[in-house]
Amino acid sequence: MKKSIYLFLIIPVFISCTSTPKPHYVIKGKIEGSDSIIIYLQKRDAGKTITLDSVVSKKGSFTIKGGAVEYPQLVQLVAGKTRKRIPFYIENSEISITGTLDSMYNAKVTGSKTQDEYNGFIASNKALSDEYTKTYQEYQLARKTENAARLAKIEKQADSIQKEMMKMQKEFVRNNPASYVTPSILSSLSFEMAPDELESIINNLDTAVAALPQVKILKGRLAGMKAVSVGQKAPDFTMNDKDDKPVSLSSKIGTKLLLVDFWAAWCNPCREENPNVVKVYKEFHKKGFDILGVSLDHKKEEWLKAITDDKLTWTHVSDLKAGTNEAAMLYMVYSIPSNFLIDENGIIIAKNLRGADLYNKVKEVLDKK
Question: Domains of the chain (ranges plus CATH)?
Answer without folding.
Answer: 25-111 (2.60.40.1120), 115-227 (no CATH), 238-368 (3.40.30.10)
